[in-house]
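Amino acid chain
________________
===
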Amino acid sequence: MANAEELCTLVEMNEITSNRVKTVIAGDISATNALLGVYSIHPDNSKLTMVEALYDGQRIGFLGESPLDYVIAHLLSLIGLQKSDINAMVLAPAGPIDYDSNTCTLPNAGYTIDANSTGINTVFINDFKAIAYAVANFKNVEDIEHICLKHSECGYGENVEHGNIGIHGAGTGFGTARLVYNPSSGLYIPFDSEGGHKFLTADVAEENLLFWKQHCQARE
């Protein structure tokens, strides 16, 4: 059986301050890596990184029956804190969230993490839904590059006000999410999708890839 220390690479550690209002844990968990950090929130609402550590996401499942518990315990031990010192924890695993049981089974890693077993007030959110929230709250909107599909009404390079936004990224799998504008609230609402954790049917044989390539070329 592995232990959490063997799987850990320290990213950052800073001196713990005494004037913090809250202490939280946030992290992203995938089948490749799990990046978790402990952060202090201060009276002026500023955030300070207390510690950040990178864990081998593929081997976390070998830690035991509740692998997340071992990782959190090790993370806190790096700065001498206990679970009782943490006000809340938000984790973004790369997989479908079962909101009824507050669990997630990572498709590309094969193990399950359970928010109920942590002993901390914990919320799971899909990893790309978390990114979608970040994009929706991005202040410098003019810095976001956008791509319009060739067959769309707007044509190349033309932005559409309050149009839907797609969030896509390659990792162990291929993550996807979308943002849909809600005119009532004036806000973008994030939606996650698990389509990116499945294999494309066409990759089972070379001739299938050729078929799809020819099909796409014919539509141009």
The two ends are 53 Å apart (CA to CA). The chain has three helices and twelve strands. Residues 131-219 form one domain. The CA atoms of residues 115 and 122 lie 6 Å apart.
